[in-house]
Amino acid sequence: MHDTNKDNGARSSMTGIVHRLAATAATTLSAMAIAVTMQGAPAARADSPAAEPDVVGHWMTRDHDGVFEIGHCGQKLCGRLVGLRYTTEMPRDKRGQPECNLPMLDGFTPDRDEQGHWNGHVTDPDTGHVYHAKLWVSQSGDLKLRGFVAVPLFGETETWSRYTGTIGPACKLP
Predict the structure, then answer these.
(1) Stated pTM of the model
(2) pLDDT over 70, % of the chain
């Protein structure tokens, strides 16, 4: 379900990613079979886990309608929606719960093959579906979030910018 309400922008931005990812699932599985057939299995790498990149902090979404806080959850990284741009009532998830502090990024661990990248999951707040995701900070200092079904090659990347502004009561952005 695509939400056309402007008050639900951050969720709509994230939901848009996960809906497009779900639509590519069949293509992904077919392409994986072709890639394995044509290229064989990927070579194993003996790299140790990457050092922590600068992904921890507050990040403004691509559409500038939401702020996510990414931080440590034990040995892993996770992220929650901490700032929303809305004018009336606070947006709610599929269970009717307020989206303020809604966890949407979970279980991120260092990528063994790509230093500075983290692998985890992103949750669609409308459906509860969970998708694979990667996080990293680009050379320009922006956060890259790539959501995908099965393999990163068949996903979508969003670019978020570091947020240094304020967040008002009830997660309201100015």
Answers:
(1) 0.71
(2) 70
